[in-house]
Amino acid sequence: MTEETLTVADDMVVSLDYTLRLDDGEIIDSSDNRGPLQFLQGRGQIIPGLEQALYGMAVGAEKDVVVEPAEGYGVRDPDASQVLPRDVFPPDLKLEPGLGLRMRDPAGRAIIAYVDEVRPDGVLLDFNHPLAGETLYFHAKVAELRAATEEELAPSCSTCGGGCAPGTCA
Description:
Elements: E1 12-21, E2 27-30, E3 37-40, H1 48-54, E4 62-67, E5 81-84, E6 100-104, E7 110-119, E8 122-126, E9 136-147, H2 150-153
Antiparallel strand pairs: 1-2, 1-3, 1-9, 4-9, 5-8, 6-7, 7-8
């Protein structure tokens, strides 16, 4: 009798070693120095294009995955910016380009905005993810794989009540 080989499927905890590059080959992220990324497959905890490509992979399997913007961090929206007066920010906050700020939209949902420009009259915020519009090139290797526990499968997000990790739901 042989033991069934586990493969990536919904509700499996996946530990993933990866390297992420952009079109120019520049490495912009990697699990090399901090260990594998761990997530619950099928729950939207990673970008859709990568999540979809992992289905069926077994421990030790490697794959190169190209994720187009629409299946990654989205297509860049040139209208997704806004200038806010400087006085809406805490006076001790060091505002500089690239700084990510957790905010709430008018409906109360958590969003992230990035400082694009600090002006004398205000701060230009960009609501696009920094990787919006980018084609992403992953080299992925499944390091570990196991079935999720009941606790891991229980809704954990206080924003939407879903299976996303606390604080990651927008």
